[in-house]
Design a protein that fits this description.
- There is one protein chain.
- The protein has three domains: 167 residues, FAD/NAD(P)-binding domain; 93 residues, D-Amino Acid Oxidase, Chain A, domain 2 (2-Layer Sandwich), CATH 3.30.9; 102 residues, Orthogonal Bundle (Helicase, Ruva Protein, domain 3).
- Helix content is 30%, strand content 25%.
- It contains 13 helices and 20 strands.
- Strands 3, 4, 5, 6, 11, 12, 13, 14, 15 and 16 form a ten-stranded mixed beta sheet that branches.
- The chain is globular, with a radius of gyration of 23 Å.
Length: 495
Amino acid sequence: MSAIYDLLVIGGGINGAGIARDAAGRGMRVLLVEKDDLASHTSSASTKLVHGGLRYLEHYEFRLVAESLREREVLLRNAPHIIWPLRFVMPHEPTMRPKWMLRLGLALYDRIGGKMSLPRSKRVDLRIAPHRGVLQDRLAAGFEYSDCWVEDARLVVLSAKDAEERGAEVLVRTECTDLERSAESWSAALRDKEGERKVSARAVINAAGPFVDRVAKVALGQGTPAHLRLVKGSHIIVSRRFPGEHAYIFQQPDGRIVFAIPYERDFTLIGTTDLLYEGNLDTVRISEEETRYLCEAASRYFASAITVEEIASTYAGVRPLYEDNAVSNSTVTRDYVFELEAGGGAPILSVYGGKITTYRKLAEHALDRLGKVLVLPGKPWTAHAPLPGGEMPDGDFAAFLWRASERYSWVPPEMLLRLARAYGTRMDRVLGTATSLDDLGQDFGGTLSEAELRYLVDQEFARTAEDALWRRSKLGLHLPTQARQAVAEWFAARA
């Protein structure tokens, strides 16, 4: 006899994890399935920003910007360990939009979301430190505004973890291979390395991201009525190019913008691109054309050119955007759209678009939409609910870090900061009863210990070295090949 759930959520990206969390917290029996690892596709390939979307104002997407700015405040309060403020510097040139237009846009950006905790925008002199010598001499003035940084894959993992702790079942590396509909429920075939099993659910939410139409065809024999535009965004990671904890936003001759952001202490993250994608969704890679574009885009502004030779790493992902017939890929709406199909029996809701910043609100709206055809328990609750590790008074990460440094005086400062950022108040669960580094088991280098790997496996759904080194952390950037191999061998020994 198959297990029976209220809701089957297909897709372990940010939207699926957010919906599963919200539904579980309302008292629904939820099953979340992901065919690969959590955040293994689009949700770990973002520019790592929680932001209002300054450029969306140009396209009159005022609702999206206002909602995004309000959600920026919510997420900053509920996950202060993995989300923190970041100032953006936008150099200005005479060939760009006039200064008065930019000042007006930034003033609107400061106010459209209501009361904000972050500093407002201002003009900035690029001829003085820390910009002098970093940017080309022709750049004398610009503007500065606030948004936030986010550890994107960790946001997904923590949302899924919270869902699990509220009663949801989370299955990674489990693919939904078949869906059969009746008047009252869906029967789903799930396949993992152990084989196949059947489950039943009163409703299905298709949050499979770029695979949304693939799932819809399994369920309905056809794709959803909405059209999907698959747009690839790629990034390059280079050696650290400038001091300070601010980021740059560079406007390009083609109208696009490219970010240059401090990344993982030793690096600078540069991106993104917007290219129509028609290739294999399971093997998305940056192209030579994109690599050249990003190097040239940053080199237009930095005093010294970015070369291909200094690229330490790259990544790419495909955004499943709702087709609104926009002329260019960069102007396609980042808003989200739902397609609800309930006429043929049990309901299925497919999710298009969305962005990390609005994932919590998207989840609320998805359940509201589903609630129009199905009686759902509970009410929205996530606005004031910290994510695991985020339970800090007033969201004060600095105060938390200070207390942690006193409690764990034996942990080196670099390691302490990384663990505090990754796990927040749950850092004590990672360290356990240890009183010295030796108590943490095997040392893999780069502040990574066997105790942390055990925690990632037991508590955060990690199954491979890649899960641990590139999604739940970015230690893959810091560890030498031999250390990464040692982590892979550790996982292989547990298999």
